[in-house]
Each structure stands twice: as C-alpha cells, then as structure tokens.
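1st attempt posting a full record on here, be nice pls
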Amino acid sequence: MKTKNQIVYFKSILSLLQKSIFLIILIGSINIKSNAQSFTRTTFNDVYTPISLVGGATESIATGDNANQTSIPIGFNFNYGDSIFSNIGLSTNGLIWFDVIAPATTVGNANLVTTNGPNQSLAPWFNN
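the predicted structure (as tokens):
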C-alpha cells in the first residue's frame, strides 16, 4: 500500500507534467501564428488587350464537334515528359497533345494513353 507521501508526490509530478504539456502547446501555437504570412488582394487595372491574328496568333481551323488541328506553333520550346515540343495539337473535345499522332475524333471519353498515342497530352476539359 502506498503511503500518503507517495500519493502527494505522484499528484505533484502529474500536475507539473500537465502544466508542462500545456505550456509547450501554448508556445507552439504562438510560434505557428508568428510564422503565418499575410496576403493582400490586389486588382489588375490595366487595359485588356485580346490576342489577335494581327498580333501573331494562330487561327484555329478546328471548329464544331469532334475536330482536331495539328502542328500549331506555340512560339517557344516546351519541355514535357521526356521531349521538347514547339508545336501542339488541339481537339474541340478539350484535349491538347504534343505527340505527332492526333487522337481519333470519335474517341469519346475513352482511355487516351495507348500504344498509338497521343500519350503526351493535357486533357483538362476532355469530354465528348
């Protein structure tokens, strides 16, 4: 059986441990708040200048549903995957590809990665 002194000693150690943990959490939360960055929202006030054919844009010949256009020059070299590209292809189904091989125009929502291509592609809006 424990003596009264042992019980008091144990309670004081437990109280000290609880206070220490609380202090560590408190100091940690203050440190986290001090490292937080503040961001300021700004508004862009410049005049909008649309991209135009006169300015060097390429007019797309892919119109309507399920149409492709290949070899569109982008005006710079683009590293993607394991290759460097200076042209892209696009589909009116929301697909951009970098391979020479264009996808079938009737592909629908199928798996785009095949042994035939286009395997190096971006499809953020791909939907048929």
